[in-house]
Here is the input.
Amino acid sequence: MVGEMANPLFHMISYEDVEKIVRASGWEYKVVGKTLLGRDIFHIKVGNGNVRILIVAGIHGTEPAPVNASLLLLKLLKEEYPMNYNFKTLENVELHIIPLANPDGFQRNYELFKAKDFTPHWSHVWEEARRNANGEDLNRDFMYLRQPETRAIHDVFNKVDPHLVLDLHEFYAKGGCPPKWADETEGFLSTITDTPYNWVNESIRIISEKIAKEIGRALPWKPKMRHFMAEAQEFPVVPNNVLGTHFPFEGAAKVLIETWGVGLANYLMTDRVSVHLHAILTAIEFAEKNPEKFIKMKEDWEKEEIKACREYQGFIIRGNKEELNKVENLLTLHGIEMTRKEKDLIFVPMPQKRGKISILLLDRYHWYNQELEKRRRGPFTIDKIFDVSIEVSKG
Here is the structure.
């Protein structure tokens, strides 16, 4: 285990505690956004290597252990060979951390547990705390980016252009856990996923799978390896509106790590935090040893993006000025190149670096979007939320 229970980061903490720890950490940080209730969203940078890793924690307010782990990491990275991992300091890695993506939900969860004397119970799930102050599940907003938190996260993603995203979560064990143990209902204590779904760049898939397996071997809790939102087939078509299924389309390998934790308060917090720290440090160690694999992965992805959209000349988007302004803002947030041709027209040229995500946003009749529609799990094209028409121009 990591440290002693006396460490405050092995207990539930408030948003104010998070803020104090970040500001006193000594690392470079920025405030990259504010929530509806005015709380800051922080982005911390550590190192200056060529392999960029982005950690996102606390996107659901009821999942505290990843937040604590991200904050404890700030201290560990000042040590040589943190937790005995085989890197002395960061040389090949540039680490970017969003330690708390949903401050309002996180604080609400803390307040609700405090009112219950931090008693763990299966009923202490509190959907209102899982979501942000607008009542939205942030992890369903990575196509339309309607919420201030998801806009901030995606803006960081665009500026960092990471090779790897670590998506840290906790899950809820059904069936009365606690007081029952998670093994009695779901049969596992932690979960790891790679990126196995359809139309994802093969180099991204391979790196994601490799890191997931490395993490699995390093964890103190035996994990269950499963495919995120996967269906019966090996490479399913999955909704691309959640962080873990979205960012691989924009050039990053991704691994999702979950621990049993929703409803637990301080119960097993040391173990839960430890799992996330092992996952993070394993990924860093792998990147420190294999920087060339990530550089090659990014090159392969960039080539495939151009190849995947060669059949398109571009997209013509028409609508009134107000609606086109909204479209322009959303496309900019996704890093999509465009030209405002006239007051009532936007042209998105193809091919371009963010080619696949352009197609997923703009071509309702692309086979991937058609498959999502068959399953009633999408698509997430912009003409579903804005009053615009889209003309697809193919060569």
Notes: The chain has twelve helices and twelve strands. Confidence is low (pLDDT under 50) at residues 1-6, 228-232.
